[in-house]
């Protein structure tokens, strides 16, 4: 679980840094200019060569509620993905999803400043779907638990203003595709994964 906790720590450190350099600790950045100045993803600047914003934006958050909900989700889903894939593959998967999420934002929300870890977190959910497809009965049960969570969060994103659906969908798709490939490289992946997934889906009907 060290990668999951490490990612959470990086997000918290970035949040504390932004809080002492212009962001309100509780309510977040005051305007879009402050977002961009702190490293948020912004298509026009990415087009000028600032590709690093795809990654820095994934560690910035707009207020205490934003980072609190994202870190709770990262802790819950990240632990399982890390158990199933291992720390190195988990790291590769996370940053692949973060990159895919950022590319989707640049392509579909070019003029909208964007920040937050949710795109990468959606990628972790996508990876769980990919893993579930490669397992037997535990995999089907896992998908049955994860899929409704994805749908609910996507519907929430389309219903509430200010949420980047491009980031969520881009992260979900890239995490799913990366999960399909990466999980194939896990030694003895199916028996070991079935053993890890079983406790998580124990409440599912037999």
Compose a concise summary of this entry.
With 206 residues, the protein is an all-alpha fold. The protein has helices at residues 2-19, 32-37, 43-47, 53-56, 64-85, 87-108, 118-133, 137-159, 165-183, 189-197. Helix 1 (2-19) packs antiparallel against helix 5, helix 5 packs across helix 6 (87-108) and helix 5 packs across helix 10.
Description:
It contains ten helices and no strands. It is an all-alpha fold. The chain has a single domain (2-201), classed as Rhomboid-like fold. The model has no long low-confidence stretch (mean pLDDT 87).
Key phrases:
206 residues; mainly alpha; 70% helix
Topology diagram in text:
Layout: H1 2-19, H2 32-37, H3 43-47, H4 53-56, H5 64-85, H6 87-108, H7 118-133, H8 137-159, H9 165-183, H10 189-197
Instruction: Sketch the topology as an H/E string, one letter per element.
Output: HHHHHHHHHH
Straight-line N-to-C gap: 29 Å
Structural class of the secondary structure composition? mainly alpha
Number of strands: 0
**Main sheet makeup:** none
Low-confidence stretches: none
CATH superfamily: Rhomboid-like
Radius of gyration: 17 Å
Q: Which CATH class?
A: Mainly Alpha
Fraction of residues in helix: 55-70%
Tell me the β content.
under 5%
Would you identify the CATH architecture? Answer: Up-down Bundle
Estimate the global geometry from the Cα principal axes.
globular
Mean pLDDT: 87
Total domains: 1
Q: Determine the number of helices (DSSP H or I, runs of at least 4 residues).
A: 10
CATH topology grouping: Rhomboid-like fold
């Amino acid at each position: 679980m060290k990668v999951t906790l490490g990612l959470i720590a990086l997000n918290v450190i970035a949040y504390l840094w932004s809080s002492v350099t212009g962001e309100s600790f509780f309510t977040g950045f005051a305007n879009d200019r402050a977002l961009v100045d702190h490293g948020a993803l912004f298509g026009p600047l990415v087009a000028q060569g600032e590709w690093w914003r795809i990654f820095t934006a994934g560690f910035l958050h707009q207020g205490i509620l934003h980072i609190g909900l994202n870190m709770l989700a990262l802790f819950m889903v990240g632990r399982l993905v890390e158990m199933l894939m291992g720390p190195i593959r988990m790291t590769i998967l996370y940053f692949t999803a973060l990159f895919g999420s950022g590319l989707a934002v640049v392509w579909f929300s070019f003029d909208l400043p964007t920040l937050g870890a949710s795109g990468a977190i959606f990628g972790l959910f996508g990876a769980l779907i990919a893993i579930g497809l490669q397992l037997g009965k535990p995999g089907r049960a896992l998908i049955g638990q994860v899929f409704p969570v994805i749908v609910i969060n996507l519907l929430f994103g389309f219903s509430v203003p200010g949420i980047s659906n491009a980031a969520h969908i881009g992260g979900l798709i890239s995490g799913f595709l990366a999960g399909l490939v990466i999980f194939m490289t896990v030694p003895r992946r199916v028996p070991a994964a079935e053993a890890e997934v079983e406790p998580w889906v124990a409440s599912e009907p037999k």
